[in-house]
Task: structure prediction
Amino acid sequence: MSLLRLNITMSLDGYVAGPNQSLENPLGVGGMRLHEWALPLAAWRKPHGLEGGEVNASTPVVEGHLSNIGAVLMGRNMFGPHRGPWSDHPWDGWWGENPPFHTPVFVLTHYPRPPLAMRGGTTFHFVTEGIASALDQATSAAAGKDILLAGGAAVAQQYLAARAVGEVNLAVVPLFLRGGERLFDNLGATDLGLEQVRVIEAPGVTHLTYRLL
Amino acid sequence: MSLLRLNITMSLDGYVAGPNQSLENPLGVGGMRLHEWALPLAAWRKPHGLEGGEVNASTPVVEGHLSNIGAVLMGRNMFGPHRGPWSDHPWDGWWGENPPFHTPVFVLTHYPRPPLAMRGGTTFHFVTEGIASALDQATSAAAGKDILLAGGAAVAQQYLAARAVGEVNLAVVPLFLRGGERLFDNLGATDLGLEQVRVIEAPGVTHLTYRLL
Result:
């Protein structure tokens, strides 16, 4: 059975992106500061095709997040900065020719588009039939491995409210963004039980893992 | 120099009290669940005049929170459920005849009231001149010891926005309250730097300590 695992970095005041997302500021104003803990890590650089990097207490956490993942789910606003219908020369993602996913990636959007095959095993599939269909397709593609729910906030909230998420891996960074996309809003009318599984302190970040009950 | 230390328990989605605070639900609907990690502890029970209790990884954290405190600051909504002017038979706090503070407590309110001396060294002083005056009075009373900023959210936000808080001790519990009083809102226009100091995993709670830069 595939587990849907939300892996995301959050500011201490609860934001996973800053305000005013754009081509210049993919994660909103100040949002790139969320990921400063990860960028120097060898464990982060390797799937991005980069050599070298640091090893610290975050290393096994990042390696664990990437292991046993057979498919990825994300929202269209995480895939790119544009809104509305795709243009004639559509955006191919933030990640260059060889994206770091190396699995099928299912992008939730309101606008149909043919699949987009990249180098390194990543193919973006654009799903217009909603979160349940995207999860079904990701589950088939994952073939027994787990599914990474990569964000952003809106998609994470929809899967949380639908009680489809099995595990939440939060990287909490010592930062107040004071605005932007808040992760834990719109969680629906139903109480969601959480169990604290694991806590790891690392330079500039705390890794919290919860199981959804 | 007295350090202003914010000690507070927060749900994973950022709330320090649930919605609809009242006499029946002092911490709002569901808000008492925030403190289930603390109530069984001997370290919590002792200052409340209760014997027995458990010892676990939260014990040294709670003992540390209570040590070297010479005065307490809190908002009027934390002191009691009533709003508006004090009545002829005013509320004397949630904590009975012998409150757990055992120091002067400065309660921020818009309505003047004479000081209220309780047993065990706690005297409630009602401050109508705003947060700077309350901090000045607490600093004098603390006589070199630190000052506990006990909450609630509105008062914590005002002292954070004023850059007066030196340390934040957050107890994060595996709970979605999905509404109520959010701690880290209204933090003002100025960027607030944070440094991650310490992380402690304990049963049903994670203790995060940050220094304000």
